[in-house]
Amino acid sequence: MAREIDEAWIDEAIDRYKRVEGLRADFERAVTAHQVSVHSPDQSIEVVVTAAGDIVDVRVHGGLRQRDQIEFSRQLKAVVTSATEAARWAREKLHAEVFGSFHTLEGR
């Protein structure tokens, strides 16, 4: 028994695939370009991270000579952890913005 081909459904599926691919490319560009800045709890270290999770800058405020090494390490670890969380948050927010209005074929 031959199956009937629904060409309109196929055309719609192809269009939706192209749209998803376009949205995915937009999302990839956005996560690479979007940057978030976070600070250590004592505000002495600033880390700039992309939504993709790449650290693009680290700034230390104040001198390093008088700083306690152990405390500096704690502050550095805290700000890197915050940067990781900020990147995840930014990625989720961008994902919702880019894909939020997209509906699945089943959700029509």
From TrEMBL:
InterPro entries: YbaB-like_sf. This is YbaB/EbfC DNA-binding family protein. It comes from Actinoplanes ianthinogenes.
